Amino acid sequence: MKVFLTxxxxxxxxxxxxxxxxxxxxxxxxxxxxxxxxxxxxxQAAAGISQDELKLLLGREKPGVVGxxxxxxxxxxxxxxxxxxxDMLPNCTVVLGGVHASALPEQSxxxxxxxxxxxxxxxxxxxxxxxxDIQEGRPISDVPGVYYRTKAGVGANKRPDLIRDIDxxxxxxxxxxxxxxxxxxxxxxxxxxxxxxxxxxGCPYACTFCAHSVFGRxxxxxxxxxVVDCIEFLYRRLGIxxxxxxxxxxxxxxxxxxxxxxxxxxxxxxxxxxxICNVNTITFPLLKExxxxxxxxxxxxxxSGDPEMxxxxxxxxxxxxxxxxxEMTKKAGIETLAxxxxxxxxxxxxxxxxxxxxxxxxxxxxxxxxxxxPFPGSDMYEEHKKKLPKDWKRxxxxxxxxxxxxxxxxxxxxxxxxxxxxxxxxxYLRPSYIASRIAKIRSIEDLRFYVNKAAVVSKLWx
Length: 462
What we know:
This protein is an alpha/beta fold. It is 39% helix and 16% strand. It contains 17 helices and 15 strands.
């Protein structure tokens, strides 16, 4: 059967910054290909495909099933795509999956009459079984993990267990992606052929602002052999030279990471890579192993400089620990990006001020600051959903010019917007920071990167 897998276009036609491949769709494509189905991945976000262009593709190819994967920030576009598919191909089965649908499967079916079924959780096995049943004319109501329509409303089957042996899925179908469309728009990366990988699924931590609706909290690892074989495939077959590891916390098992690093070096894979880590598992010997294998950047979720805020959102780290790990990482020759969040429930002006001062004291190379947006699937969403907007368009926050979705602390939404701009200004416009960046310029590409960064920061006065 012919199957389209699509990621909705962005809410803006102007695609800037980082563009990451839809790994979830590439994994599902692999499972479908194994069962003999014909698969096409349409990444509207990366390719900038318009609705008219999508109509032409649907009319020409006439798929029997269209799978749409979406986060909450894209769900309005996903619903629009479902309507477009049904308008063009009334007999096509439209299936919705992804983080948002996994968190709110019944609600998603009720909100969008053009969706025939929702898959909650991991999609590889469930979606493949669903397509098999559609092809054979069997009712989709028999597939575990599927939510479907009934005369009375919505029917649901028990979710299957999470896939234990994730190696068995195979490599994502990178060959179905237009690799040239993806980029990591950071210093030293823009000229590299780039993609992303996952070496594990799940996160053992319980931060209240994170959604666990797809992969859960039990960590399942790809084997070291799988990981390095995949890197070698990307390196030798697709010419990839830069990789982003998208695990929730890459170094949760330090011994495994060291084995991966040593295998990368043993096979002569001259890549650079970045990852996301929790400060709890980081040691200097580990960092040296990572750097020697090509790691050039680590992102740490520090979130707040107020211990009370960290405790409230169940972020189990200490400020001293965070400061020490960032310092060690830089000493190992690896750039650091620190994530901070403002607008937590109960946050005061004083606690926000502590976070700003902490960010400057820790001295990461870069910061990424966001205003809290509790998404479905997170504990925080469940706790505060009565205060949150029902219109999913409000969750499409893409710039500092857009107002936050709700006031959950002392500061109003307007004040939070201004504090976000001020936070960025205070961090990036310090004379000491500017001097440190100038000292790191080694090429025209570096200079261009910092000029672009300066242009972005200049907009924070508007």
